[in-house]
Design goal:
alpha/beta; Rossmann fold; 7 helices; globular; gamma-glutamyl-gamma-aminobutyrate hydrolase activity; Class_I_gatase-like; PuuD-like; transferase activity
């Protein structure tokens, strides 16, 4: 379902968070900020303009400066969130946090705080759903096989599995993808206790929370959706990217109108 970039009168700028870890290319073996191209290809196909956000030391003021220049935000996939951020001891198979992963955690938490304050539309993908939940005081299941008794959510070796997802009626996710969908999954962690101000908007056949969003009763003017699956792995279905880009275009138009009034 490719979209024509001109279908949005405003092409919003979407910031995408990135990995920070060692990478090899040619003769180089260096610490690098990077992101698989399919993420920003999805944004472009949906009519947005992508800009990449490398993890860096940040406070709320700096995060605010970054968000002032964006119309939308995607918190992307990646390594496990540090369990210390939600008051848990690490599971034996949880990714061991280092200085770089802790910096990414802090960077994304700060961006989310700034986005929610401003009303900047947000889409969380896989780790991004977990970051949103933890940022709002929730917790995570650190290893799903301990909970559901199988490894189908993450087979390993970079092989994505297909999960059957059922959405909750009258949620934003349901309005975007319909009552059910097939999703590409690669996660061994998932949301446990729900963060403050979030509602569940989709689950899979195991009862695992697969999507959350901000509660419209509490945040009627906020667009923040997060899915545990990987929509960028299915660029023939751009509905989630299109939803974010559409919300970001509207946000950009509103910001421009406010500047004119000033």
């Amino acid at each position: 379902m490719a979209l024509n970039a001109s279908s949005n009168p405003v092409r919003p700028v979407i910031g995408l968070t990135t990995y920070l870890q060692r990478a090899q290319t040619g003769v180089w073996d260096v610490k690098a900020s990077f992101l698989p191209a399919i993420y920003f290809e999805g944004v472009g196909m949906a009519g947005g303009i992508s800009t990449l956000l490398p993890p860096q030391p940040v406070d709320d003021a700096i995060a605010g400066q970054i968000l002032d220049r964006l119309d939308g935000l995607i918190i992307t996939g990646g390594r496990d969130v540090d369990p210390a951020t939600y008051g848990a001891d690490p599971h034996p198979v949880t990714d061991v946090p280092d200085a770089d992963t802790r910096m990414r955690d802090a960077f994304e938490f700060a961006l989310l705080r700034a986005a929610l304050r401003r009303g900047t539309p947000v889409l969380g993908i896989c780790r991004g759903a977990q970051v949103l939940n933890v940022a709002l005081g929730g917790t995570l299941h650190q290893h799903l096989p301990d909970v559901v008794g199988h490894t189908r959510h993450q087979q390993g070796n970079a092989v994505f599995t297909t999960s059957s997802i059922r959405t909750v009626p009258n949620t934003r996710v349901a309005s975007l993808v319909g009552p059910d969908t097939s999703a590409q999954c690669y996660h061994h962690q998932a949301i446990d206790r729900l963060g403050d101000g979030l509602i569940v908007s989709a689950s899979d056949t195991d009862g695992v929370i697969e999507a959350v969003e901000v509660d419209p009763a509490r945040y009627p003017d906020r667009w923040a959706v997060a899915v545990q699956w990987h929509p960028e792995e299915r660029l023939d279905d751009l509905r989630l990217f299109a939803g974010l880009v559409g919300a970001a275009a509207q946000f950009a138009t509103t910001k421009a109108a406010q500047k004119v009034k000033v």
